[in-house]
What does this fold into?
Amino acid sequence: MLATAAVVVGADALTKVAAVAGLEGRPPVALPLGLGRLRIYRNPGGPGGLLADHTLLVSAASASLLAAIWVAGGQATRRREAVGFGLLLGGGAGNLLDRVVRAPGPLRGHVVDWLQPWYAGNVMNLADLALQAGLVVLGGAAVADWWAERRGRAVASS
It folds into this structure.
């Protein structure tokens, strides 16, 4: 879990630095094949700009969720669960790190978003993609466990 989280935090930080250096003050850049756009957006709020006027509340909620992910992830018994929780932990930590170190100040900082994929109306970053991937991995793990248990019961009753 921690290795996955560390990779996500590092990659997220690097891509944000590159995005700010390459995109700040420029118009949006279209991706090939209509895959989306690259543009800088400084998000003061949560997902989709939710609670934009309450950055301290968003920071506190983020820290609380990270603590819950840490506790739940510590109980993971399978590698796929650990990877899923690591993606959630890394994604959440990457965005919380922005809130701590970026302007306008600690716990009020705005998250750097730079990717607007074709399927999303909002601009996001690598941490956001990791959060989405973590949910998919954990959902897939839950379905796989359910299916294996169901098949096991069917075989036992035959």
In short: Residues 126-157 form the longest helix (32 residues). The chain has a mean pLDDT of 94. Residues 18 and 56 are 26 Å apart (CA to CA).
